[in-house]
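Support reply, case 0932

Customer input (verbatim):
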Amino acid sequence: MNREIVRGSAWPEVAKKDELDLVSLATVFVSSEQARFPIDNVFDGQRGPGGSCWIAGSAGEQTVTLTFAKPQNVRQVNIESEEHGRTRTQEIGLFVSSDGGETYHEQAQREFHFSPYGATFEREEWTLSASAVTHLQLRIAPDKLDKATETNALDRINKSVTFSQVRKPNQLSLASLTSLIVR
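Our regenerated output:
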């Protein structure tokens, strides 16, 4: 698995009053990203439909892990995702660790159903009571109903595709997030 690290100093300060300041509290690890849609976009404050986003750079399940410098109490996690180009079901699982990332415990799971002629934007708010969290992890299956498109994925990625551009039916489903908010 390829890993890229984005240090907190790369993120602008956009935390609102009741949100954890992820810029100063966490480091993010991501399994892959497209150069035009880096993980930094998830934390830039451009939320809601049409906001900037992260898009995976490779096929298959992706992970986004926040590693906190000091353990945090987490009471809520909000995520957003948007897809205009194709019908797909993106599954997202939320996991936390309180032992330095040795073990993770599932907190929530959700399927986002996207359709160009229906739902193109999904927002989920998970309420939890997790103490002394050292790691928060999202596991994202970009299209749980279309595993066949994951083979030879990098050969089929159109490098000029933009977030709002309609994808051709034979193109790959890639994981995406618009925002991740932790309270």
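We compared this against your earlier run and they match. Two observations from our side: The beta strands are 4-6, 26-30, 54-55, 62-82, 88-97, 105-114, 121-141, 176-177, 179-182. The first helix runs from residue 22 to 25. Please reopen the case if you see a mismatch on your end.
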